[in-house]
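ok so for the tutorial part 2 we go from a plain amino acid sequence to predicted structure tokens. step 1 is just haveing the sequence, like this:
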Amino acid sequence: MNAALAARVRQLQAEAEHRRAIREFRARRAADEQARIGALLNELIAALADVVDDGACITCISCRRALSPRRRSCPHCGTVVAAERARRAA
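step 2 — the prediction. this is what the tokens look like for a chain of 90 residues:
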């Protein structure tokens, strides 16, 4: 194989690798964006549920923020709030 042909083959392989890397990057970026959108939607749903709860709330035992009684964990610090729910029921 002559040198010019070998150089062209290497160039085409490099371009193919570059295109593959770009596709992977775009796929990762799209997945990250979908995850962020999902997290924002979950946060929005939780906030709307808090508004609808007619003021009934419980307090997170870790960060002391008001939470909806429907919450299983605190969206601010991640603490499971089942203990607080059990304390209020007693």
